[in-house]
């Protein structure tokens, strides 16, 4: 018996002497795969928003994983949220940045994911018409051709907006178009309107389009939220790597929250092909610190509960999602505490009001 116990001990010590990595390190992946539900103009691998896209450009996550020798593979998806869902379902991604609606649809369909960080709050939706259109209100476009990118988080935000105004999707001749196609269709007058994000300001500045509705200006509950999620199996097998990824995201969020880094952040986002002035116009008076708080607070969780509820009411979702069980705040909270950033991002309540500490 003593001999049996002694031999494994010798082998373990020999492994240490020879520089062989312990089992946990040996089991680490050589590469982690990160997907973003967006792409820059012309398919270039940059995004016009998100902490994740800045972390990519600044190699923030690579720096956190350098000691483990883990590389990061980045993929930008023209097909947005639905394409990311397909890649996650096929185990082609470990982490992803995407919007609320597609993630909820995938979760209700059985996709094993965990939400581990907020990454882009209070994003507005803009209804754009051709510059010479007489339309000034939603009602003016009833029965007209209006484009939206279905399957993205803009779809639900649009549905919320129409419901608030006493309208429905069927009140319009809705056409499914991605954002570049919709922008081109507006320029050629092939459609009467389109729901867009920051592209709206570029079209307005160039004289192609005119914004007639801004959802954030009307009500914060009409906005869109985005996040970072992780494959559930990956999180179970490699929680220490998940923490390092979140550390990189939180450090990037702290960088962009500092006013002195404002110009640098917009310049990096502008590599997507969207001009800085359009990005600034889309940001409006909302601070970058608020927009890119990584906290999974009550505001974030309540917005996702609303996404589940409203998606079911609108027939976009057949299953159900336990949002409280889906959201995992421990990684962000650990990073914030360890880095001493508790005061940087206050927690907000469901009504988008800072909570007393």
Automatic annotation (TrEMBL):
Keywords: Signal. Residues 1-25 form the signal peptide. Residues 67-256 form the SsuA/THI5-like domain. SUPFAM superfamilies: Periplasmic binding protein-like II. This is Sulfonate transport system substrate-binding protein.
